[in-house]
Design goal:
alpha+beta; two-stranded antiparallel sheet; 3 helices
Amino acid sequence: MKFFNDRRVHTIHRGNVKPVSHTMPIWNMVVNGKKLDPGTGTMTVWLFDNADEYMPGKSGNVFNLCEQYFLILKNLVNQWLNQKAMIERKLGRKWSDSS
């Protein structure tokens, strides 16, 4: 979360965050059960610079980091919704008891 917050602050106050694109050959690829010759295809990945400062040992892969961030936020939202429902149930009981 700290990494994404730092990137957010950077984009608001300093400029754009531009992940670095890397294209590389694929050496071991199977399509429809058939193994292709090594180097037949390429893949492109985008990496955030300096991700290792915040998450040692992580590659900085944009898709992996965004998915991790999404899962953290999803968990926070679910916790919030559960707590909200619990409060509403308690308020509903108090409301019905007083009438």
